[in-house]
Amino acid sequence: MKIKSLIAISLLSASFSLFAAESSSTTTNIQTQGVIQAQKELNDYEKIMIEKVWITTDAIDEKGNKTTPDNAQVSNYFGLAEYYPNGTFIMFTPEGKQKMQGDWSMSDDGKIRTLVAKDTEGKTLFTRDVENITVKDDEYTYRIYPNADDRNVYFDIIHHVKK
Predict the structure, then answer these.
(1) Left, alpha or beta for 158 (phi > 0: left; psi -120 to 50: alpha)?
(2) 65, 105, 114, 118: least surrounded by Cβ within 10 Å?
(3) Residue 75: how many other CB atoms lie within 10 Å
(4) How far is residue 80 CA from its own chain's centroid?
């Protein structure tokens, strides 16, 4: 009877040790991956974007006219966005529902922002480049073209830091 108890205790102990070692290894992997992502060198324009919540405040057409947020050509661009130092982002609708996540970057000259939208498994859904117009501490504006073949018609999508 004592031998069966000792064997059972030994097996239980070995299983627990294996689980603890595996759990520790997984945690280390996750932490290591996080550190690797966090070590991404940010350029000056990327540094402006991080650690803020950006809210879309206006959409202005090529003639300087404000466009309402419910305009079908700009409605998808309204909402809130957060850009993180590890190169990821998350976006929300104006009502606060998550609408997009993925990776982001800015060109070193600040002229182009690239978004790589991903699903919850990390699969790329699409990549979008936009032309930056203004990248300042309190304002971020980019330009969209409803028809990629017509550069005469556009909207400037203006964001400010949420207070």
Answers:
(1) beta
(2) 65
(3) 15
(4) 11
Q: Determine the residue type at 7.
A: I
pLDDT along the chain (163 residues), means of 10: 46 40 40 47 97 98 97 97 97 97 98 98 97 98 96 98 94
How would DSSP label each residue in the chain? -HHHHHHHHHHHHHHHHHHHHHHHHHHHHHHHHHHHHHTPPP-HHHHHHBTSEEEEEEEEETTS-B--TT-TTTGGG-SEEEE-TTSEEEEE-TTS-EEEEEEEEE-TTSSEEEEEEE-TT--EEEEEEEEEEEE-SSEEEEEE-SSTT-TTS-EEEEEEE--
d(CA 88, CA 105): 9
Cβ-proximal residues to 19 (8 Å cutoff; 6+ apart), any chain: none
pTM above 0.85, yes or no: no
Distance in Å from the first CA to the final CA of the chain: 70
